[in-house]
Description:
46% strand; 164 residues; 2 helices; single chain; Lipocalin; mainly beta
Amino acid sequence: MRIARLVVMAALLFAVGLIAPHTAAAQSAYVGSWDLVPDSLSGKIPGSYASPTVEIGVYGSDLILTQHPIVMQPAEETKEIYRLDGSESNLSGYRKGRLTLADSTLNLTTIRIRPGNDTVTIISTAYQASDNLLIVTRTLRVERPAGRVLDTPLNRWEARYTRR
């Protein structure tokens, strides 16, 4: 009877959002510093590169993703904050971001709509962690006007990282 009450209490807390199941998964599997494995990048998205170093941290109700720059663009370090509850975050450059967790994959989706422009740019980045390996897959989708997908032949890359 006591176990049944605990199960019901946990279910109620989960239902009202006080326990976030993806928080524990994000902390244990993804948190840390990750270095790009040389020659592991396949595919290409113009203007989107695999950072040499990626840091993932969970602080309170936020996941913070820090991407360190490539040598040719030293001022390009980016820090993005995503809410663990899956609600939308405001990012730089007219972008909004959302974090979701499906199975063991951490998905970060950014949507950019520039003012005065009917083009919608959607970048989906999937992070799959297993022990000391992180596989990052980024996909680009462009819609113009919103809803009509444009042909973007160079729209995907995948890279592998090892935990530092």
